[in-house]
C-alpha cells in the first residue's frame, strides 16, 4: 500500500460572511507537508479573508479547518501569520528584538520570562532574516523592507508548521524579496508549509509549487501550469487579465472591481 502522508492543512467547504454578504463560498483544498502555495485572485476575491479564517481571526459560517488531520483548535499554535504591513501599528514603542520575541509567547506564556533557548531561537531568526544588526532599533525607525523582515523573523521564532503571509512582496525592496524566497526554500527543507497571497502572477507561476486561484469560490488549485490557464484566469479576472507578447501575465488594476477591497 502507498504511504499515507497527512496534510498539514485541509480546508473543507468553508464559507465566510460579512453581514449579509458572502465573501468565501464553499472553498475546499489541502496543502501537503513542506510545500509552497501562492494564493491569487482579483481585489475582493477573499484572499485575506481566507487567511484570517484559517488563523482564527474571522469566524467561518460553515465548513471545517483541519491541521495534521485534526480539528484546528488542537494545533492552532502550529500556524504563524504575517499580516499585511498596513494592518500593523508601527508606532508602538518596541524594539526589533521585542517583536521577534513575541513569536515565543505561545510557548513560554505571556507572564513567564524567556529562557536561554528562547533567546537562542530569537537570535537565530534575526540572523536568518539578516536583521541582527538592528535588533535594538525601534520598529518605527525601519524601512518597509526591514519591517517585513521583522515580522517574518517573529513568525520563524514561533517555530511553526505552517507559515501564512499576506501580500509580503508589496512595497518591499528586491533584497527583502530575495531573502523571503530564500527563507521559503529553507522552510521547505524543514517540512514547513508556506502559503503566500500575491498579486504578482509571474512570481506565483515561477516560485511556488502550487497555486490557488479564488474569486470568492475556488476556481482551481494545483501546479501553476494546471491553474494558470486562459480559461481559469478569465473566470477569475475577466477583462483585467492580460498576456504580454513575451508570455508574462499581468492584471490591469484599473479594470478590476475595487468594491470589496476591504475584505480581500
What order do the helices and strands come in, and which of them pair?
Elements: E1 9-18, E2 21-31, E3 36-40, H1 47-54, E4 62-67, E5 70-71, E6 79-82, H2 96-101, H3 105-108, H4 116-128, H5 144-157, E7 162-166, H6 174-189, E8 193-197, H7 201-207, E9 210-214, E10 218-222, H8 224-227, H9 230-237, E11 241-243, E12 249-251
Task: Give a quick summary of the entry.
This protein has helices spanning 47-54, 96-101, 105-108, 116-128, 144-157, 174-189, 201-207, 224-227, 230-237, and strands spanning 9-18, 21-31, 36-40, 62-67, 70-71, 79-82, 162-166, 193-197, 210-214, 218-222, 241-243, 249-251.
General description of the model:
This protein has 264 residues and is α/β, with parallel strands linked by helices. It is 30% helix and 24% strand. It contains nine helices and twelve strands. The strands form three sheets. The protein has a six-stranded mixed β-sheet with strand order 6-7-8-3-9-10, sandwiched between helices. Strands 2-1-4-5 form a four-stranded antiparallel β-sheet, covered by helices on one side. A two-stranded antiparallel sheet has the order 11-12. Strand 4 and strand 5 form a beta hairpin. Helix 5 runs parallel beside helix 6. It is globular. The protein starts with 8 loop residues before the first strand and ends in a 13-residue tail after the last strand. The C terminus is likely disordered.
